[in-house]
Write a structure and sequence with these properties.
Elements lengths: L6 H18 L1 H29 L1 H14 L1 H16 L3 H10 L23 E4 L6 E5 L1 H21 L17
Antiparallel strand pairs: 1-2
Length: about 180
């Protein structure tokens, strides 16, 4: 007797059967794999590596597509990766965001991870000498603060010896 059921329906039926079986025997299945995995660990890793190497372009294309369609997760991942550099963890970063009401602490711009505008993504402001975190800023204020801290002293040291004056600058004929 041949099975006349369409493939998609058989697939759904089979899937549902396995799902129910798993939920009924969850502990037994987990124990089985927990005991069996250490024995097969190297073999499984070798199979995974072989498969990934054989389908490298597919994995690369999928990864590129996924990160492109989930930009907020990429930005969040980058921030999480950098938190260790500042000596804080994700919950402390969330506390900083909550305390600042998800706004830049200088200009008050709304900050969020899903933005395509880089200036609206939260940036961690820190002291460059001590690496101590000072707060959450937008990109523009963070860059301004960095320039103020690093470039202004150099500008003053440039102006100081000769008592040079800044501006006004005129193009063409100067007023008399």
């Amino acid at each position: 007797m041949t099975n006349t059921m369409p493939t998609a329906e058989r697939y759904q039926e089979n899937r549902e059967y396995h799902r129910q079986y798993y939920h009924k025997n969850k502990d037994k299945i987990r124990l089985y794999y927990k005991l069996r995995y250490p024995q097969r660990k190297e073999k499984i890793r070798a199979q995974v590596k072989t498969y990934r190497d054989a389908h490298k372009e597919e994995f690369k294309a999928y990864s590129k597509w996924w990160w492109k369609t989930h930009p907020s997760k990429l930005k969040r991942k980058r921030i999480i990766r950098n938190l260790g550099f500042y000596g804080i963890i994700w919950s402390q970063f969330e506390d900083l965001l909550i305390n600042s009401k998800s706004r830049c602490q200088i200009c008050g711009k709304k900050l969020w991870f899903g933005s395509f505008d880089k200036s609206e993504v939260p940036h961690i402001d820190h002291n460059h000498e001590t690496l101590k975190v000072r707060g959450i800023l937008c990109r523009h204020c963070n860059l301004f603060l960095w320039q103020y801290e690093n470039c202004l002293p150099q500008l003053f040291s440039y102006l100081e010896p000769t008592k040079r004056e800044i501006g006004p600058f005129f193009y063409g004929k100067q007023p008399s």
